[in-house]
Amino acid sequence: MIETALNGLEVTDVYEADRITSILLRLPDRYQKDEEAIEDSLIDTPDGQRIPLSHMAEITKSEGPHTIFRENLMRRKIILCNVVNRDIGSFVKEAEEKMEREVSLPKGYFVTFGGQFESQQKAMKQLTLMLIVVSLIVFLVLFSSLGSIRQSLLILINVPMTLAGGVLALFISGQTLNVSSLIGFIALFGIALQNGILLIGKINDLRKEGLGLHEAVIQGSLTRLRPILMTELILILGVLPLALGYTTGSEIHLPLALVYIGGFIVAIFFEQILLPILYELFAKIKKENY
Fold this sequence. Notes:
Blueprint: H1 2-7, E1 9-15, E2 20-25, H2 29-32, H3 35-39, E3 42-44, E4 50-52, E5 69-71, E6 74-76, H4 88-102, H5 116-146, H6 149-173, H7 179-208, H8 213-244, H9 250-286
Antiparallel strand pairs: 1-2, 3-4, 5-6
């Protein structure tokens, strides 16, 4: 009776030309909001009597959720928020620390963070795993091409140096490591390896032709200076408008552009100065001959 009076009971349908309308049987709205009217509602008993609802139950007015969500057979309450002027990762970390320190949840209650944070964590784990696998494959390819573990590692040293430039650019600009910037790091990874292979390969070719170690390093560096410099300057200039534009959607492409610019600026210095010096130093230590 209570369910019919307050929530309504569908008793029939009205068929019209373009629609079907359900007919509900329930009390008028004014009775549903009046606590005394609900208390005075008469209830039929099995012996034929009719007694007020207030004689059978205690009626109180309170507030509760309109909809109860469940997940894995447990009730779930969703709290939505938008993170502004900071990264999601640091926000969640700070929120977890404050909740652990200041919030005492009843037994059986727990808090989990989902949404964009959950998607970001999954993407970061997948990209990190892929980066490790690709690094191993690249090392094997380098070793098979150069025939030297030392030279393969020397080219791989170019990668963290280049990545350090991207991290520095993010730090100076106040940006954070996210999926967009991580994709930029992967692109830096490939181009840094490509330029390192070109430089080391050219020096090896000159040494095979009979040049001395120092002369081969100097001439090889000068020969590869222009193509490497042009490649990296074109990439820097190509993403420069993305780094300077603060428009709608810039939060997506801005970290990637900053990683490109910072990484390639450091790469120019490392590939043309430090990498040839390290090559000559390692060759002298191992006394390599061609």
